[in-house]
Structure prediction request, 224 residues.
Amino acid sequence: MDNPNQAPETGGGVIGFIQKYRRTIIFCAGVLALSLIGFFIVITLQDIFKKKAISTLEELTDRYEALRPSITESYSDYDVEDLIQDLESFAKKNSGYAGSKAWFIIGSIRNDKEEWAEAEIAWVAAANKAGKIYLAPLAWFNAGVSAEEQGRTEEAVDYYAKSIAAPSGFSAAPHAQFSIGRLRESLNETAAAIEAYRAVISGWPYDTVWVNLAYSRIIALETE
Prediction:
């Protein structure tokens, strides 16, 4: 007859296993606990740094907005350059939206001052920092404008193409595609220009403004 006071074999086996490997189990539990604590510390610190970065970015943006009406005036040169230095320092230390936005403001300042080479550098940096967020295609487009102002046509075409291909999408994509056609036309590359204009028509048939302009340019080029 079975002894009613005897523990079941399964239960005894589990208890025996725990007793035999208790040090290993306690060690693993400790490691897991420390890992969880470390994880939460990292998350908390990231949140703190993110909030600090956004707060600093807001201060820089406020400074920009205050200077914006007088950016092209000589009496603001010192304050503008001081702001640009602070923005560059901030942008180099931050990625994602914060870093991209800082470069974006620098690009806007350089544009207003018609410093096209510096503006191009800022727009490219803003686009690269932005990654897949909405600032990327706009930064690439603005880089194209800055390159155009310097007569750097091939670079401008490349930037416009990047604005169209940006994964976040771009509402001004048909404008960018038309600009590619316009630049190809300026280089007397008629076939490439027509192809670019046709891409406007096929890619954004709902956009009557740029589609109509594309049609008109195709007709003009084909009848020359």
